[in-house]
Amino acid sequence: MAALPNCETLLLSLDAGVLHITLNRPESRNAMSLAMVTELRAVLESLRNDLNVRAIVLRGAGGHFCAGGDIKDMAGARAAGGDAYRSLNRAFGSLLEEAQSTPQVLIAVLEGAVLGGGFGLACVSDIAICQQGAKFGLPETTLGILPAQIAPFVVKRIGLTQTRRLALTAARFNGSEAERLGLVHFSEADSEAVDARLHQVLSQVRQCAPQANAQTKALLLAAENEALGPLLDRAAEQFAAAVTGTEGVEGTMAFMQKRAPKWAAE
């Protein structure tokens, strides 16, 4: 696989085709600094064409996922004026775009604070698992600012009506409510149950062919914005190529021979 970049704000661990990324600024509840944003983007870029990594698990150190943007970074940008604020904010939006479109399955494990930028990261995951006691919220307006880069992703995740309520009240809520809203897929009682659910989800992901998963994810994301006819034309071409491709042939043979395909045995 491609070499991973050196990181100061992230812990990286590769295990059986799964890259575990841990946000590692526990003293600030893993607040999203510009350095962390830059490092996350570099890690995702290094994986862009590497399907040896089947899934990415994103979580936080010290019992919290991410408490939002780093106020110290914002204070530092004040001296440089509006352009610095704009660049700082847009860099996080670029991270969200890149995380959403990464070809690997992106799994967010959410504990403790899941606020602001952390909330945004949860919204771009393919699968989200939380602890029931996690605290979710969009606190930006209580600071006199906007959830500027996060808002479009939250709307896509849970709908405009609920996003308006949460963004305009800064209401906090727990994992059970996050599951009801569709923000997360699983809300578990404790950390042991969270880890058990993560193990189950990763086992399921490993049953799926890497290239087929990557193309399926891209197709699903495209379905939100592309015209239906051209999208279906392109999907038919991809389907034909997949059936006669390496994964399609292996999957068909494995089914006929009543065995696991090679990617499930790796």
What does this structure look like?
Pfam families: ECH_1 (PF00378). InterPro entries: ClpP/crotonase-like_dom_sf (IPR029045), Enoyl-CoA_hydra/iso (IPR001753), Enoyl-CoA_hydra_C (IPR014748), Enoyl-CoA_Hydratase/Isomerase (IPR051683). This is Isohexenylglutaconyl-CoA hydratase. It comes from Pseudomonas peli. Belongs to the enoyl-CoA hydratase/isomerase family. The protein is an alpha/beta fold. It folds into two domains: 10-205, 2-enoyl-CoA Hydratase, Chain A, domain 1 (Alpha-Beta Complex); 210-265, Orthogonal Bundle (Lyase 2-enoyl-coa Hydratase, Chain  A, domain 2). Helix content is 50%, strand content 14%. The protein contains twelve helices and eight strands. The protein has helices spanning 34-46, 71-78, 82-101, 117-123, 151-158, 160-169, 175-181, 191-205, 210-222, 228-244, 246-256, 262-265, and strands at residues 10-15, 18-23, 55-60, 105-110, 113-115, 127-131, 135-137, 186-188. The strands form two sheets. It has a six-stranded mixed β-sheet, with helices on both faces. A two-stranded parallel ribbon has the order 5-7. Helix 2 (71-78) packs antiparallel against helix 3 (82-101). The protein is globular. The model has no long low-confidence stretch (mean pLDDT 94).
